[in-house]
Amino acid sequence: MNLTDKIVVVAGASKNTGRVIALAAADAGANLVVAARSASAIQAVAGEIEARGRQALAVTADMADAQQARAIITSAVERFGRVDALIYNAAYMHQRAFLKIDEAHWDQMLDTNLKGYFVTAQAAAQAMVDARIGGSIVGIASTAGVVGFPNNADYCASKGGMVTLTKAMAMDLSRYGIRANCIASGFINGESVAEAEQAGGGAVLQALRDFLPSRRFAEQSEIASAALFLASNASSYCNGSVLSVDGGLTLGNLPSGR
């Protein structure tokens, strides 16, 4: 993917898939603004980007705070003069049965996953309109925004909101040359999978893998490749799309025949 000299903002970039996305964008030629709650972690990612010969600005921000979320885009424009692409990867997740979800958990989930996406995307789109350059907005949603998962009602609601918000943004922003797309990712290898295996959850994880037609979870680099595709001109005719990167999870629960 070619992102040479593009200014790419990655929200939620301090670890796991967000970090991989940011480094992949740097390898594709982009200069980056990376944001996360942990100052030390996001500074470390910025250092990795600069070690690759690209420019990077680290911004400490809690995406559940609208003022902090908007400030990411303000900082990007102040440093680089424009924003070419936003990739929103910030997310909060906890598993809780529907009857056990309290208002505080609901607010944390929706504020981070959905409101943060809305606020950051709106600020990025306004910067793109002001600069008259067009651009791309990419939301890292989830298959949980397409189908229901048990014990994840608030997470499903937040990711489903991301999916339909993306489609609505695509309708409103097309006139400015701005595209909006999202990724419905499935299970991804990362820290949470490793922690679950160490905690004795290997059998459950293997059952999930066996359920998938792919028989495996996604690598973080596979999500990054999809995100960079949607952020780049390679996807110039994709707008309002939901790209499933889930190993066939949303195909249904019928045996694959293998």
From TrEMBL:
PROSITE patterns: ADH_SHORT. Keywords: Oxidoreductase. It holds the Pfam family adh_short_C2. Belongs to the short-chain dehydrogenases/reductases (SDR) family. This is SDR family NAD(P)-dependent oxidoreductase. It comes from Sphingobium cyanobacteriorum.
